[in-house]
Each structure stands twice: as C-alpha cells, then as structure tokens.
Specification:
Blueprint lengths: L15 H18 L13 E6 L5 H12 L3 E5 L12 H9 L5 E6 L4 H6 L5 E7 L5 H15 L6 E5 L6 H12 L3 E5 L15 E3 L2 H4 L5 E4 L15 H8 L3 H4 L7 E3 L12 H4 L7 H26 L4
Parallel strand pairs: 1-2, 1-3, 3-4, 5-6, 5-8, 6-7, 8-9
Length: 314
C-alpha cells in the first residue's frame, strides 16, 4: 500500500495516491464497523495516548473508539488539568510522554504548529487532531470518503465550502485535499470571514450564496467559530443566517442531487436550517460521523505499520 509517512500532521504532504490508499483502507473499516464483531488486532499491544488541549466531543470520541476497535491500549489525558496548566512547556510534556514509550499520540492544540513541534520530540507516530487555524487532516479525509461514497468519485466535482473560512482548519485541509483530487472549489462567505491571500489557493470566492451555489455537487457548511473571533466579524447571527445560512431556498441553486455536509457541532438556525440538516435525502452529516471512525482506524493502522517497519518489527 502506498503510504510512507511516520506521522499524519496535515494533508499538505500527502500525494493523491496516498489519499486514495487511506480511503480504500477506510472502506474496509466501514464494513468492519457495521459487522456484529467490530474488532481487529491491527494495534494489539500498542499504546495510544489522546491529548486534547481544546475541548472536543466528536473527534476525541472517534479516535478513542477507533483505537479500541483496533486493539490498542487507549489513554485519554485531561490536558486542562495537566502539568501544562502548572507552567510546564509543551516540550517538557513531550519528553515526559516519550519516556512512557507510547506508540500513537493523538493531539489537538489551539496553536498552529504545536502538533508538528511535538512530533519532532517523540519517538512515536503523531496524528494531528486539529492545530489552531492550521489543519485538521482526518476531518478532510472523512469528508473525502463521505463525498466519494455519495458521488461515486472524488475528482472533477464542483464543491462549495461556505461560512467561516478564516478561522477554519477544516476548510484549509479540505481546500488542500479537494484541490489535489482535481475538484473545482468555491468558497462562499462574508469578506470579513475570508482569509487574506485566499485567491492563491486556486479557489473561486463568492459573497453571495445564490451565485456561489449555482450547479454545485457538494455543499459543505462550516461552524461559526465564535471562540476564535475577537471582533465584529458578523452584524448578528440572525443577519448571518439570512445571508449565509443554508436553507431550502439557497440550496435550490445547487444541483438537484447535491449533498449537504457539516463537520459539527452545528449551530442550527445560524449556519443551517435544522430541518435541512436532518433531511436524509440531502444531508450526509450523520454519515460523516460514521466515516470519521473508519478513517481514523485506517490512519492509525497505516502509521502503526510504518512504525513497526522503522523499529524493525516484522
């Protein structure tokens, strides 16, 4: 299988064939997760530590479940109550963890680049579960798997990413991945929520939903990340929903078989109409959650194989 990386820190360094390798393996894990016996021993004897410096429900639970289904010993560290809060540096934390000989380290951190720094200081495989505004690679991969299963392919589609682009590591990872797979990417949102220099990413930028959603295959909504906003990025949530919240009227501009996505957690009535979010004919939001476990199982399986090769373990 074509996947040679020691860590999964972002999408930027993955080649298209490596993305396909990971998604193909994830398909096997989708089938396993739907079977009565959901367990495999790909990580048997290995230790997985989850370090979440930011609150997380979906991603942490997904990684924990993925590790346990593959047979790993999984430990969740409560970072808010850890020595970090007592002044210990990230490097010291890395060195302490390294002395415990973990095999897989899953890290979410509020600062861009922190996970990469950790990866340089430990002898195990590191998976980025989101770092600042930088990347969230497994979210982009699970989105890709969801799209491929719904559309039958992952190339030459027209995909709209809508909302808070500026603060979204999900958007950044998806732009990189979907671009590598030769898709047409449109970004839709208010100018205040568009990052500077975004046109350099080879995307089309719109500030009107009707124009931006015209004839697209996929509509990917984003969460308004109010915790990362320090100013008046939007006039009000009501005004934001009126202009950029997804409802049936706005969705009517997309193709009739366009799918609706959201990485969660959703602000219903702000980013998306609640009824539309639950529409099983259009929304694949629950499928995204299911694909998340399978993709994380595949990622940890591949990294564990490479780790074993590096350590000279047959």
């Amino acid at each position: 299988m074509t996947f040679t990386h020691r860590h999964l820190l972002g999408i930027e360094h993955l080649r298209p064939e490596e993305i396909v390798t990971l998604l193909d393996l994830a398909e096997d894990y989708v089938a396993l997760n739907r079977a009565p016996d959901k367990h495999k021993d790909a990580l048997a004897g290995l230790t997985q530590i989850n370090m979440f410096f930011e609150n997380s429900t979906r991603t942490q639970a997904s990684f924990e479940l993925a590790g346990k289904r593959l047979g790993a010993d999984v430990m969740n560290m409560a970072m808010q109550a850890s020595s970090i809060s007592k002044g210990e540096t990230l490097i010291d934390t890395a060195m302490t963890l390294n002395a415990m000989h973990p095999d897989l380290l899953v890290v979410r951190h509020p600062h861009s680049g922190a996970v990469d720094l950790l990866a340089q200081k430990v002898n195990c495989a590191v998976l980025n579960a989101g770092d600042g505004r930088h990347e969230h690679p497994t979210q982009a991969l699970l989105d890709a798997l969801t799209i491929r299963r719904a559309k039958g392919r992952l190339h030459r589609l027209s995909i709209a990413i809508c909302g808070d682009i500026a603060h979204s590591r999900v958007a950044r990872s998806n732009i990189i991945l979907l671009g590598k797979m030769e898709n047409r990417i449109r970004l839709i949102g208010p100018p205040t929520l568009m990052p500077s220099g975004i046109s350099e990413f080879g995307v089309e930028v719109y500030d009107d939903m009707a124009d931006g959603l015209k004839d697209v295959d996929v509509v990917m909504m984003l969460r308004l990340q109010k915790e990362r906003m320090d100013g008046g990025f939007i006039p009000s949530e009501r005004e934001y929903y009126h202009r950029f919240g997804l409802d049936d009227d706005k969705l009517s501009h997309a193709k009739s078989d366009a799918i609706v996505m959201h990485p969660g957690p959703m602000n219903r009535g702000v980013e998306i109409d609640g009824t539309l979010a639950d529409d099983i004919n259009r929304s694949v939001i629950q499928e995204q959650v299911e694909m998340g476990v399978a993709v994380r199982m595949a990622a940890m399986d591949l990294l564990a194989r490479n780790l074993a090769a590096l350590r000279g373990v047959a």
